[in-house]
Automatic annotation (TrEMBL):
Keyword terms: Acyltransferase, Transferase
Organism the protein comes from: Meiothermus luteus
SUPFAM superfamilies (alphabetical): Acyl-CoA N-acyltransferases (Nat) (SSF55729), NAD(P)-binding Rossmann-fold domains (SSF51735), Succinyl-CoA synthetase domains (SSF52210)
Pfam families: Acetyltransf_1 (PF00583), ATP-grasp_5 (PF13549), CoA_binding_2 (PF13380), Succ_CoA_lig (PF13607)
InterPro entries: Acyl_CoA_acyltransferase, CoA-bd, GNAT_dom, NAD(P)-bd_dom_sf, Succ_CoA_lig_flav_dom, Succinyl-CoA_synth-like
Species classification: Bacteria, Thermotogati, Deinococcota, Deinococci, Thermales
PROSITE patterns: GNAT
Chain ranges of the N-acetyltransferase domain: 28-193
EC number: 2.3.1.-
Record protein name field: Acetyltransferase Pat
């Protein structure tokens, strides 16, 4: 087996340009340096202490000369200079660069410089990660750095990077060198740093110390008044400040909103304000956001809807200048049920029940509706977040927050669109190993289905099914195996549940007690079935005029409680086909109850599928020792559809060659289409059939060995699976290394002893579609 390949990590935004998060949760902007940035560089260098300049340039240097050195572009050598900016007016707070060590060299010298006031906030590590990822894309394989021995902070950045560092100390100077290809340790450090920063940035949102309602009106029917009232009546455990710039009290009067002392400006608020909820008319939002930034507010929740795109863009820019996170616009609810917080911000009138479920909803209206439905089911939440337009805070951010949150055990997502699906895929794969992620997305999309399947996300068809499954995942253990016992007093409902289970690969045995079954018969049968052994138990009851619902509830409660005392750890489900919402209550445990047997069957089948995915070790990506630098040189000189000669040369860099078809076997077409949102999408189909092509599977890249094997499962006993798997993985690697590839099609002949590529076509993106390189 070849060595393992580690795909480069995926930042939430563009690699070299976009918003970033500091370790303390503040936001800033990363971008390539430009020649016109010279005044910003001079001002930045003037702010630095003499020691900081000496550490960077090895001697005292005037700011103007230093700025010219940082911006100088050496001839015939690759150089990348990145800057981090924040504040109003915008100023540089950190810069990093690498300079190629000679034309055509695969090594470069790297250095960075951080504002004294921003030391210890992860900027050095972030710049090093980004420069390394850019360098690898541009053919650089090794970084060198030179620093003074007393520059402990810089040395610590290198040591904590996850790269394998070689250091040599001579005469007070330390030379550091290391390979910059991504490795598992570097990837783990990248994700840890990003998670720490994301959690820190969301604490002012989900656990604020103080909240201001900007636009709090005296009109009880207004949005501002209702938001203020909801915060107060749900007993937020911190100060709440009404802010209404329109309030102009007469001389000697005290401004009041809803019997609370109000303020005419956010700047006049005396106490801590982590979160400001903006309910102003849309034409006032930008002014309010600017004032909040100047006041030092950490995060904004914008309830206001229907903002113009230009207004929204300016709002985002304002938040980034001041380091604020932004929820919305159009966020209708933000909730934390922890007794230490009790945050109910927005238009939902009351907090949900407290529990282990955290939910993110892209639709505010859907979110408000499901809160009441969940209450009826007895389901409790740790957090609920209505994302609104999600121009900043997204479900990816929240997933990282909930990953280690001790109050969250299950993550629910109502998703209408994806901002960064490749980042979502990496997060879901990781977090899903610890906590289930359950999602609903309107419509059917084969690419989204593939994304969920590859990442272990439990897909629900609709909101009702989401909460059916959530009731099980939140309160019951996962099934260890496929054997399900179905106990019922009516065969019809039992076989409906049986069909739902067996459709998804589970095994169900029905014990029909008959229509005259007593509550005692249920109790004794539960005991007997559990003694015989099964992986899950569903009890169904239809009131037929003999035993009552109450009697069966009590009998099942006693039987289940006894089973738990004896150490039975399988999932237990009930279905009462009767009016009302009867439930079986145990000490410290909630038994999920369903109105219809199919619902119980589908929920248990979904939990079993998730349990199987979670127990299956994650796949790996073999390295294959490909010649990626040679491949990049080929595509750098080409455009559009490649010639047959260039196509073969490109494929050869990844160990793929055209050859005559073997005898026997099947004909296949492997196609790659570049989805503008999801990136490269692989599809495989049988060809040469009388009735046309037969699709076999679809996956997004990067592909692991296990995912490739799953894609090829329909060809078991009809093709040489090992050679096909190797081919799929090599094509996936090609797509990861060459984002310029827009389309690819391989015609394959898969025989019993091997696989041949009989025809190949490759198409590259046009110049306008290629990603710009940083300067």
């Amino acid at each position: 087996m070849p060595e393992r390949y580690t795909p480069p990590p995926t930042p939430q935004y563009a690699l070299e340009s976009g918003p970033i998060l500091l370790k303390d949760g503040r936001t800033a902007t990363l971008r390539p340096a430009q020649p016109e940035d010279r005044p910003l560089f001079v001002e930045f260098l003037q702010r630095l202490s003499p020691q900081a300049r000496t550490f960077r340039f090895f001697s005292e240097i005037d700011p103007e000369t230093a700025a010219d050195l940082l911006l100088r572009k050496p001839p015939d050598e690759d150089k990348v200079t990145l800057v981090v900016l924040t504040g109003d007016p915008e100023r540089i707070i950190a810069t990093g660069e690498y300079v190629q060590e000679g034309p055509g060299s695969t090594s470069a010298e790297v250095a960075f410089l951080v504002d004294d006031w921003y030391q210890g906030r992860g900027l050095g590590s972030l710049l090093l990660e980004r420069l390394a990822l850019i360098g690898v894309r541009r053919g650089i394989r090794r970084f060198h750095a030179y620093t003074l021995a007393e520059n402990k902070q810089m040395l610590d950045v290198f040591k904590a990077s996850g790269f394998k560092i070689e250091a040599h100390n001579e005469a007070g100077e330390v030379e550091v060198s290391f390979e910059i290809e991504p490795n598992p340790e570097m990837l783990a450090r990248f994700e840890l740093r990003e998670r720490v920063a994301t959690v820190a940035s969301l604490l002012p949102v989900l656990r604020p110390r103080g909240v201001a309602v900007v636009g709090a009106s005296r009109d009880p029917e207004s949005v501002g008044y209702r938001v203020l009232e909801n915060l107060v009546l749900n007993r937020f455990q911190g100060p709440v400040y009404p802010v209404n710039p329109a309030v102009t009290p007469a001389a000697g009067e005290v401004p009041v909103v809803g019997s609370m002392l109000a303020y005419t400006s956010i700047k006049a608020v005396p106490g801590p304000v982590d979160l400001a909820v903006l309910t102003t008319p849309r034409e006032k939002v930008l002014e309010a956001a600017e004032a909040c930034g100047q006041r030092g507010v950490r995060a904004l929740m914008v309830v206001t809807t229907d903002m113009e795109p230009t207004q929204t863009k300016t709002l985002v820019q304002t938040c980034r200048r001041y380091g604020m996170r932004l929820l919305g616009p159009g966020s209708l609810a933000l909730m934390t049920t922890s007794p230490e917080v009790q945050l109910c911000a927005g238009l939902a009138p009351r907090l949900p029940l407290r529990g282990k479920i955290a939910m993110s909803s892209q639709s505010g209206a859907v979110g408000l509706a499901v809160l009441e439905y969940a209450r009826e089911m007895g389901l409790g939440f740790s957090n609920f977040v209505s994302l609104g337009a999600k121009v900043d805070i997204s479900s990816n951010d929240l997933i990282q927050y909930w990953e280690e949150d001790p109050e969250t055990g299950l993550i629910l997502l109502y998703v209408e669109s994806f901002g960064n699906p490749r980042r979502f895929a990496r997060l879901a794969r990781r977090v899903g190993r610890k906590k289930p992620i359950l999602a609903v997305r309107p419509g059917r999309d084969a690419v989204v289905e593939a994304l969920f399947k590859q990442t272990g996300v439990v897909r629900a068809e609709n909101l009702e099914e989401m909460f059916d499954i959530a009731a099980l995942l939140a309160h019951q253990p996962l099934p260890e195996g496929p054997r399900v016992a179905l106990l019922s007093n009516a065969s019809g409902p039992a076989y409906l549940a049986k069909d739902a289970l067996e459709t998804e690969g589970m095994e169900a045995e029905v014990l029909d007690l008959g229509s005259r079954a007593s509550a005692e018969a249920y109790k004794e049968s539960v005991k007997s079935l559990l003694e015989q052994g099964c992986d899950a138990l569903i009890t169904l009851f239809v009131p037929l005029g003999y035993a009552t619902v109450g009697e069966v509830q009590q009998a099942l409660g006693e039987a289940f409680q006894e089973a738990r005392r004896q150490g039975v750890g399988i999932p237990l489900l009930t279905c009462f086909m009767s009016p009302g919402k009867p439930r079986v209550q145990l000490e410290g445990e909630q038994i999920p109850t369903y109105r219809f047997p199919e619902s119980a069957g589908r929920a248990l089948a979904a939990a079993y599928a998730y349990a199987q995915w979670r127990r299956t070790p994650p796949g790996e990506i073999p390295d294959h020792n490909v010649r990626e630098d040679e491949a990049r040189a080929l595509v750098a000189q080409a455009q559009g559809r490649l010639s047959p000669e260039t196509t073969q040369a490109l494929l050869d860099c990844f160990g793929l060659r055209l050859s005559p078809p073997p005898k026997g076997g099947v004909l296949l077409a492997l196609r790659v289409q570049h989805d503008p949102l999801f990136g490269p999408v692989l599809s495989l189909a049988l060809t040469g059939l009388p009735l046309g092509e037969q699709p076999l599977g679809l996956r997004i890249t990067p592909l692991t060995d296990r995912e490739a094997a799953e894609m090829l499962a329909p060809l078991t006993r009809t093709a040489h699976l090992e050679s096909l798997q190797d081919l799929l993985l090599r094509v996936s690697r090609l797509l990861e290394e060459l984002p310029e590839v827009e389309g690819l099609e391989l015609h394959l002949a898969a025989g019993p002893k091997g696989t041949a590529i009989t025809e190949a076509q490759v198409r590259l993106k046009g110049p306008s579609q290629s990603s710009p390189k940083p300067s």
